Amino acid sequence: QVQLVESGGGLVQAGGSLRLSCAASGRTSSSYAMGWFRQAPGKEREFVAAISWSGNTYYADSVKGRFTISRDNAKNTGYLQMNSLKPEDRAVYYCAAGFKYRSSGLGSTQSEYDYWGQGTEVTVSS
Q1: The Cα angle at residue 95 between residues 25 and 18, in degrees rounded to 5
Q2: Fewer beta carbons within 10 Å, N or C terminal of the chain?
Q3: 83 to 20, 56, 67, 119, 125: CA distances (angstroms)
Q4: What is 49-78 written as a DSSP string?
Q5: What are phi and psi of 111, to 5 degrees?
Q6: Percent of the chain scored above 90 by pLDDT?
């Protein structure tokens, strides 16, 4: 079992920045991909960004150039740096861990992830 805890959400003005963190505990001795997804009110959960154990990254087009995903494997923690935030970025952000992949793999669909955090809310005011 793996437990994931997100933090760093909050209220920010449009154009501002936030940094989300995702702390993993439990079965973290194996390599795993980490992903960030978000769910806006009334919408389905969607992919935001993913990072492999070795550091390969992949982004949704809607956040490319504004968001940066990273991780510190020694600390079992992942990060999502969000810059130039827009009102449409408002959502609950979830991190996820996927053990399907080994060192360099990552996924962009929810089914590719095995464990999920409880989410952290991001609100962007216009």
Answers
A1: 110
A2: N
A3: 11, 20, 6, 19, 14
A4: EEE-TT--EEE-TTTTTTEEEEEEGGGTEE
A5: -65, -15
A6: 90
Helix (H, G, I), strand (E, B) or coil at 118: coil
Question: Two tokens at 4?
Answer: 């994931």
Poorest-confidence range of 68-72, 79-83, 99-103? 99-103
What integer pLDDT is reported at residue 105 of this predicted model?
A: 87
> With DSSP H G I counted as helix, E B as strand and the rest as coil, what are the percentages for the chain, rounded to 5?
5, 50, 45
**What is the average per-residue pLDDT within 90-99?**
97
Confidence of residue 30 (pLDDT cuts 50, 70, 90): confident
